[in-house]
User: What shape does this take?
Amino acid sequence: MDCIFCQIVAGSIPCTKIYEDEMVLAFLDIAPVSAGHTLVIPKEHCDEVHNCSEKYFEALTSVLPKIALAVSDAVSADGYNVLCNNGRAAGQLVEHLHFHIIPRMAGDGVFSHWPAGKYPPGKADEVAKKIRKSL
Ligand code: AMP
Ligand code: ZN
Assistant: This one.
């Protein structure tokens, strides 16, 4: 078992636990973007959103809102990001599905660069058609 988050679930690597039930674990990120930065993970190993079993994904998403609110309230945040990196290209370093809850303060400058683009005429429809076809 070389997955660091599976080892946290098994208790062989320590974590600062926030929440636990039969299927879900939440703990503080060891390198926080802001105080309270929390990771929420399924206890069953999978690497990305689309590989997670429905049962575990439902369990995780059903408790995510209350964990997010508790994190946000605890640090008196003005807002929070729920972030899930899927794949190396998207910035995923730990290949066990996890949702970041990152408390945000007004004007904190975190993620200040959002590289928003614009579709040329016809491109949005073309992309949407491809997505609908692969659903
Ligand atoms: P990602 O880039 O989405 O894969 O993020 C992985 C996150 O896991 C990073 O924010 C790390 O700081 C965090 N992390 C890695 N190892 C540990 C650990 N042992 N305990 C808590 N958080 C960790
Ligand atoms: Zn794992």
